[in-house]
Amino acid sequence: MTMVISMVGWVIQLRKYVFKPAINSSRESSLAGVYARLYANGKYFVEQYERYYYYNNTYSSINYDYDIKQVEGGVLMGIQLIFSEKLSLDLFAGGGLHDSDFDHKPIDIDFYSPDRGYTGIVPKIGFDIGVSF
């Protein structure tokens, strides 16, 4: 079986800083502190599968093409710490809603990445490390 995936995506976020913690109070950056964030993102996948079958002593193949459209939105809370002009750390947690829509997906195809077909609640927890050159 061979698989080809093409993807296009977008992300929008709105971040509101609530207050600065004491460890960052001496910093002059307005992009540090505890924040609330609304986010939305969307993705569009085009997947092509070629599946090989062996029947009556011959090999044959069938091509499957389908599209997946995804939309996700939610709320995150976090803290961004700026250690110097060159280094920052962002810790966040929250969640949102995720919806996936298929354009004629074949029934017998399994996903290598199950999040492409998922519809429901999405928890999020993570961190970002920022380095400026």
Topology overview:
Layout: E1 2-19, E2 33-55, E3 58-82, E4 87-103, E5 120-131
Antiparallel strand pairs: 1-2, 2-3, 3-4, 4-5
Can you characterise this structure?
- With about 130 residues, this protein is mainly beta.
- The protein is built from no helices and five strands.
- The model has no long low-confidence stretch (mean pLDDT about 80).
Mean pLDDT: 81
| Category from helices, strands and their pairing | mainly beta
Question: C-alpha Rg, in Å?
Answer: 22 Å
Strand content: over 45%
Shape from CA axes?
elongated
Order of helices and strands: EEEEE
Low-pLDDT stretches are none
Spatial strand sequence of the major β-sheet: 1-2-3-4-5
How many DSSP-defined strands?
5
Q: What percentage of residues falls in helices of 4 or more residues? A: under 10%
| Count of runs of 4 or more consecutive helical residues | 0
Biggest pleated-sheet summary: 5 strands, antiparallel
Labels describing this entry:
133 residues, 5-stranded antiparallel sheet, mainly beta, 71% strand
TL;DR of this structure?
With 133 residues, this protein is mainly beta.
